[in-house]
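Appendix B, record 7
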Amino acid sequence: MRTLFAHLQPIGAVARREVGSFFNSLIAYVVLAVFLAVNGLFFWVFPGNVLESGLAQLDALFFFTPWLFLFLVPALTMRAISEELRQGTYELLLSKPLLRTHLLLGKFAATVALVVVSLLPTLLYYATVYQLGAPTGNLDQGATWGAYIGLVLIGMTFAAVGLWSSTLSQNQIVAFLVGAFVCFFLYQGFAYLALIPSLLAHSAWLSSLGLLAHYESISRGVVDSRDLLYFISLTVFFLAAAGRSLQSRHA
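C-alpha cells (predicted):
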C-alpha cells in the first residue's frame, strides 16, 4: 500500500501542476470556449440540429464531439513534453525524486481530467433534451450514458497519442499535427480502408480495428469488456511508446 501511495503522490503532484498551468494560460480558455461554441452550434443551430429534427436525442452531440476531440486533445497535449524539452526543464524535473513514468502518467491524468471538464457543460444539453421529450424523460438513458463513457475513452486514447507525439519534437506545432493525424487515422482511417474495393473482403475486420467501431458499440448502451480492453490497450501502447521515445532521446 505504501509503495502504491509513493507512486501516486508524484503522479498527482504532476497532474495538479499541469492543470494549474493550463488554467493559468489564456489559450486554455480559448480552446475550451471554441470547443463548446462549435459543439453548441452543431447541436442547436446548424442544419440537422436537435430542434429541427424534433427528436429527443443527443446524436448530434455524440457524432461531432469525437471530431472536435481530434483537435482539442492534441491542442491540450502539444506542449506537455515538447515544451519541457525545448526549455530544458525535462532533465531538471527528472533530477528530483520523479520517474519518467510519474511525469507521463501525471500529464496523462491531467489531460483526461481536462477532457472530462470539457464534457461537463454538455450535460446542460442532456438536461434540456430530457425536459423537451414527450413525455418528459423520453430519452434512451443507456445509450446516452454509454456514449458519454465512449467519449471519455476516446479522450483518454487521444491523450496518450498526444503525449507520444509531444515527445517527438520540441516544436509544439509539429507535435499537434502529428497527434491530430494519428488520432484521425485511429478514429476514421480504418473505416476508410474498409471501403477500398480490393479490401472489401476484409472490411468487417478492418473496421473493427478503428476507434469508431468500438465507440459506436459502447454508444448502443452496452459496455462490452472487449471494447474497454481495446481502448485501454491502445492507451497503454501509446503511453509506453512515449516512455520509449523519451528514453531513446535521453539514453
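Remarks on this record: Residues 15 and 109 are 6 Å apart (CA to CA). The chain has a mean pLDDT of 85.
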